[in-house]
C-alpha cells in the first residue's frame, strides 16, 4: 500500500477540564461579540462545523464551535472558556490523530477563515494558521518560492509547523519550524503576542517543535521560504520477502547520501518499496539508486524516476495528484510512531515486529542533512540526530476490526521494537496510549517546555490529555 493510500484509510479520552454549563444568555453575548459564526448544538451547520478529518470522533459534542474571523474572536473564545472552566482547542486542518481538535463539551476555535498566504518581495510569507498545505504550496509556487513542509494537501500549517514539520525536501532545507521567523498567538490571559527571536524568545523557541495546543492559539505565522526548483521523484519496488534486506541496505546507504536526496520506505506484510525526491539531475541520481540496489542485493521489480516541477512532485506523494485542490475524503485510522536513533542491529527482527499484523503499515521518513545541523536544544524539536522517523498506521473502520483492535495491533509494534528506537515519538503523530509520552515527544527539551507552559498558561486553560499545561482550574477573566 502506498503512502497516501494508507493515509486515507483515534476514541481518545475527552479533553480534561472542569466543564461548566454557561447560561444561554452568556452564549448569546458571546455570539454578538463575534465577527464569525458561533455554532451550538441544534444550530444549522453545527453537525458540519464540529467535524474534523477523522470520522471516529463524530460522536463528540463540542459545546460550541467558534468560526473565528478575526483575532478578537479568538480572544473572546479563550476568555469565555477560561471564565466558565470549559476546555478549549484550536482546529487548523483537523488531522489530530487522537481527535484533540474535536473537544467534547468544550469550545472548538475553528481557524479555517485564517487562510491567507501573503508572499512578500523578499521571499518571506505571512500565512494564516488555518491555511492548508495545498493552497500554500500553490500560492508560493506562483511566486517562485517553496516552504519546506509535508505533501498532504489538506493538512493544516499550524499543527505541522508547531510540531516540527517533516517533508520531502527537509534534508536539504530543514524542518518547517526551522523556517519560522515570527508567530502571532493568543495566550491564556487573552493577550495577543507577536513572538520572534527578539520578542519573547522563550515562547518563540517553544513554538518551533513544542507541539500544537500547548501554549495558546496561534493565528498567524511568518516564514522564510526558499527558491523553487524542479524535483526528481523516484520509486523502487522490491519483491515480497525483501523487507529486511531493504531496511538493512537503506539504513547503511542513507547517511552517505547528499542533502539533496530525501528518501522514504514503505514496509508492510507484502510491501517493500522506497520512494523519494532529489533536487538535482536524473543522471546524478541514477548511481545513487544503483548503490542502494547493490546494498539490498535484489533487483527491484519496478523502478521509475521522473523530473517534475515542485508542485507536481508534491502531488505525486498525495492521493489528489489527479485532482489538485480537491477536498480529501474523511477517514478512519489510527497511528503511532518511533524515531530511529541509530542503525538497527537486527533488521530481520525489526521487520518481524513490523509485519506481525497484516493491517499495519510502516512509513519511514529519512532524517539527517540540514535537520541534524541544528542542535537538539536550539528549537523545541528534540530528535535532531535521528536517522529516520517511523510512522505506524492501522485502519479503524469496522472492516479493520475497529479502533480498539487497531490500537492493540499498533501497540504491539510500537512497544516491540528494540533499543535503537528508545523512548521516542514524533509529536505530530500523537498516540494517546504512548508510554511515557512527554519524554518520548519532547526528550531533553521537556523541562524547559513545561516551564514555559506554566508561565503562559498557569491555570491550564489549554490543558488536554497529552498537553504540557498543568491541571485545569477555573479562571476569572475580564472581557478581552
From TrEMBL:
GO terms for molecular function: FAD binding; oxidoreductase activity. SUPFAM superfamilies: FAD-binding/transporter-associated domain-like. It comes from the Bacteria. PROSITE patterns: FAD_PCMH, OX2_COVAL_FAD. InterPro entries: BBE, FAD-bd_PCMH, FAD-bd_PCMH-like_sf, FAD-bd_PCMH_sub1, FAD-bd_PCMH_sub2, FAD-linked_Oxidoreductase, Oxid_FAD_bind_N, Oxy_OxRdtase_FAD_BS. Residues 58-228 form the FAD-binding PCMH-type domain. Keywords: FAD, Flavoprotein, Oxidoreductase. The keyword Oxidoreductase applies. Its cofactor is FAD. The keyword Ribosomal protein does not apply. Belongs to the oxygen-dependent FAD-linked oxidoreductase family. This is FAD-binding PCMH-type domain-containing protein. It comes from Amycolatopsis rifamycinica.
Amino acid at each position: 500500500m502506498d503512502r497516501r493510500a494508507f493515509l486515507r484509510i483515534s476514541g481518545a479520552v475527552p479533553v480534561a477540564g472542569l466543564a461548566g454549563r454557561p447560561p444561554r444568555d452568556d452564549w448569546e453575548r458571546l455570539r454578538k461579540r463575534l465577527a464569525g459564526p458561533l455554532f451550538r448544538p441544534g444550530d444549522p451547520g453545527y453537525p458540519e462545523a464540529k467535524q474534523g478529518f477523522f470520522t471516529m470522533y463524530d460522536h463528540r459534542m463540542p459545546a460550541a464551535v467558534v468560526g473565528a474571523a478575526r483575532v478578537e474572536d479568538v480572544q473572546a473564545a479563550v476568555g469565555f472558556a477560561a471564565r466558565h472552566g470549559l476546555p478549549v482547542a484550536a482546529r487548523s486542518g483537523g488531522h489530530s490523530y487522537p481527535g484533540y481538535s474535536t473537544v467534547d463539551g468544550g469550545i472548538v476555535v475553528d481557524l479555517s477563515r485564517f487562510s491567507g498566504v501573503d508572499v512578500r518581495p523578499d521571499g518571506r510569507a505571512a500565512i494564516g494558521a488555518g491555511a492548508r498545505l495545498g493552497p500554500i504550496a500553490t500560492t508560493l509556487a506562483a511566486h517562485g518560492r517553496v516552504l519546506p513542509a509535508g505533501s498532504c494537501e489538506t493538512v493544516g500549517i499550524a499543527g505541522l509547523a508547531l510540531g516540527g514539520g517533516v517533508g520531502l525536501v527537509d534534508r536539504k532545507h530543514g524542518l518547517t519550524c526551522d523556517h519560522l521567523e515570527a508567530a502571532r498567538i493568543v495566550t491564556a490571559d487573552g493577550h495577543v503576542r507577536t513572538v520572534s527571536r527578539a520578542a519573547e524568545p522563550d515562547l518563540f523557541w517553544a513554538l518551533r517543535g513544542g507541539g500544537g495546543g500547548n501554549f495558546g492559539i496561534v493565528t498567524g505565522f511568518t516564514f522564510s521560504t526558499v527558491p523553487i526548483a524542479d524535483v526528481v521523484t523516484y520509486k523502487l519496488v522490491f519483491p515480497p520477502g525483501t523487507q529486511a534486506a531493504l531496511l538493512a541496505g537503506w539504513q547503511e546507504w542513507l547517511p552517505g547520501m547528499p542533502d539533496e536526496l530525501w528518501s522514504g520506505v514503505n514496509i508492510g506484510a507484502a510491501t517493500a518499496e522506497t520512494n523519494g525526491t532529489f533536487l538535482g539531475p536524473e543522471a546524478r541520481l541514477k548511481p545513487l539508486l544503483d548503490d542502494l540496489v547493490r546494498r539490498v542485493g535484489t533487483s527491484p521489480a519496478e523502478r521509475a524516476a521522473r523530473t517534475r516541477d515542485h508542485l507536481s512532485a508534491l502531488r505525486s506523494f498525495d492521493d489528489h495528484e489527479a485532482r489538485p485542490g480537491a477536498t480529501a475524503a474523511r477517514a478512519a485510522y489510527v497511528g503511532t510512531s518511533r524515531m530511529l536513533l541509530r542503525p538497527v542491529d537486527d533488521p530481520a527482527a525489526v521487520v518481524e515486529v513490523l509485519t506481525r499484523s497484516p493491517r499495519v503499515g510502516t512509513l519511514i521518513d529519512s532524517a539527517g542533512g540540514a535537520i541534524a545541523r541544528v542542535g537538539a536544544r536550539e528549537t523545541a524539536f528534540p530528535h535532531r540526530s535521528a536517522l529516520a522517523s517511523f510512522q505506524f498506521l492501522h485502519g479503524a473502520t469496522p472492516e479493520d476490526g475497529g479502533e480498539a483492535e487497531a490500537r492493540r495491533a499498533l501497540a504491539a509494534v510500537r512497544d516491540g521494537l528494540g533499543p535503537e528506537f528508545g523512548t521516542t515519538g514524533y509529536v505530530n503523530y500523537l498516540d494517546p496510549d504512548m508510554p511515557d509520552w512527554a519524554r518520548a515527544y519532547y526528550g531533553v527539551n521537556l523541562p524547559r517546555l513545561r516551564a514555559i507552559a506554566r508561565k503562559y498558561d498557569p491555570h491550564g486553560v489549554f490543558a488536554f490529555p497529552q498537553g504540557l499545561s498543568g491541571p485545569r482550574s477555573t479562571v476569572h477573566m475580564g472581557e478581552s
